[in-house]
Write a structure and sequence with these properties.
Helix content is 20%, strand content 34%. It is α/β, with parallel strands linked by helices. The chain has a single domain (40-234), classed as Rossmann fold (3-Layer(aba) Sandwich). The longest helix has 13 residues, at 41-53. Bound molecules: zinc ion.
Amino acid sequence: MVNHFKSNSGYCVICEKETTFIEYGEWLRDCYLCKTCGSIPRQRALINVLNIFFQNWKGKIIHESSPAGATTQLFSRTCKNYTASQYFNNIPLGQDFQGTRCENLECMTFSDDSFDIFITQDVFEHVMNPEKAFKEIKRVLKSGGVHIFTVPWYHSSPATVQRARVDGDSIEYLKEPIYHGNPIDPEGSLVTFDWGMDLIEFIYKHTNMCTIVYLQKEKALGLEAEFLHVFISRKI
Ligand SMILES: [Zn+2]
């Protein structure tokens, strides 16, 4: 069979091998895959940032909220002190369900100053109360610890747009509902925020954490796609 997909050779930071990156569709964020591990660009971007700024990250105490995909497999395989949590309906917070601890990002049961690195990958466009979630991440980070995350960032929009909010026991839709794929929910995850330019200010205002944004596009590392920014917020 003739392969009509565009591809290029390069090095994948997730399977840590020379590989081929293949473009299966125009939306590279979901369709520009490593042939070996199946990783997507934002996952490689996040690991690339760890490699550049935190050379000894595999020895750190790392926690990830809402783990999924090739990145999580790399963490599980190579980091002795990696843990992950996920919010499950009807499971008490702090308890394990099918091997993963149940935690609500807006109200976690971890002690203060628990982690060196806290990871979220495309989570903050789905949280209902991001102020609480950012504050909680700051609380559970050690002093000098970092929250490293990806999120769709509309950096040319001055202001963040809230798409939905909780109103008592129900959800009020402020914009037409949009859902993203969710590995633990076939109905998908509701998008609650389209983050704009003011995201960095939002984090600073509510947590005093300083954030830098890293963007690298380099096809030899499979780094090319929409929304490829990686955010690093540091707890002073
Ligand atoms: Zn790979």
